[in-house]
Amino acid sequence: MSQVKPVILADCRPVNLPPPDNIVKLCREAGYDVSGIPLIDESRGVASAWVKYGWSVTMGEALTQDWVGQALNASPDAAVRIPAVYLAFEHSGLGYIVMEYIDGSVCDDSDALRVAAAVECLIHVKSPTSTPGPVGGGPIKHRFFVEWSSSVTYSTVQLLEDHVNGILKNMGVSHRVSFNDEALCLCPCDLNRTNFKKGLQGKVVALDFGDTCFLPPSFFAFAIAAAEDRFTRLLAQYVKYPASSNLEAMLHASYYLVPFGTNNIGVPSSLKPKPSQRTSAQSS
């Protein structure tokens, strides 16, 4: 009997979906140098689901994708679709997200206007909680941070603001940020074209939520301003998003972290590990 306790087990999952142990076995056979595999419905000879798996796949990603999907897929007028999450679980340190299989081609430059409309739809999705980060909590995934991942979890937006301002204070500059007037909205940070497909009736499908969290909209303005890939820079010409008075300060703070290779500069004292925690972490 399987010992895996799914974080998500959707009622809409295919009736013949393999149990978690079988999925783990299939992924192990496929190897860990791929990001995912299709699950084939042998009776019809077609893919019935897609499994995304790996060390970097988190349940926060699964819960975020599931939440956004439920928020948007019910509306036929939404400019974007989200693959339904059928099953999500962890096994031996790896995350597994079993989702709807999307049969379609990856978007290209000619789809920029449609993808821009999809992105605008995404960034208007409101957070289910007042906690920044993925649904369910956890580190923030965003290019502001070294290695695109915060080193701490923020229970409030104020703590996130305090950290950014702590970095600026460490720099010795007068710039400060304020997120007080910003509601938490979805922030898709990785807008590479491979993360979007053309689905049925040409509607854009957003595929990857690994670097997507609920954050103050200033972070989306940052993601656009700091983008390095050509497709994101193309989208920037079409996506309408709120301007941010925090942008310049955030760019300074983020670039300041790079040569140090750490996100721990300026961390609020309440988020720093207590001496007893540091001692036990070092001894374990």
Structure description:
By secondary structure, the protein is an alpha+beta fold. The chain folds into two domains: 1-101; 103-267, Aminoglycoside 3'-phosphotransferase, Chain: A, domain 2. The protein is built from eight helices and eleven strands. A five-stranded antiparallel β-sheet has the order 1-5-6-3-2, with helices on both faces. Strands 4-10-9-7 form a four-stranded mixed β-sheet. The radius of gyration is 20 Å and the shape is globular. The chain starts with 7 loop residues before the first strand and ends with a helix. The model has no long low-confidence stretch (mean pLDDT 94). This is Aminoglycoside phosphotransferase domain-containing protein.
Topology of this protein?
Blueprint: E1 8-9, H1 20-30, E2 36-41, E3 46-54, H2 59-72, E4 80-81, E5 85-91, E6 94-99, E7 105-106, H3 112-122, H4 157-171, E8 185-188, E9 196-198, E10 204-206, E11 212-215, H5 218-225, H6 230-235, H7 247-257, H8 275-283
Parallel strand pairs: 4-10
Antiparallel strand pairs: 1-5, 2-3, 3-6, 5-6, 7-9, 8-11, 9-10
What is the mean pLDDT? 94
- State the CATH class of the largest domain: Alpha Beta
**Overall domain count:** 2
Q: What low-confidence regions span 5 or more consecutive residues with pLDDT below 50?
A: none
Q: Count the E strands.
A: 11
CATH architecture of the largest domain: Alpha-Beta Complex
Main beta sheet, described? 5 strands, antiparallel
Radius of gyration: 20 Å
Counting H and I runs of at least 4 residues, what is the number of helices?
8
Order of helices and strands: EHEEHEEEEHHEEEEHHHH
Shape: globular
InterPro entries: Kinase-like_dom_sf
Organism: Mycena albidolilacea
Protein name: Aminoglycoside phosphotransferase domain-containing protein
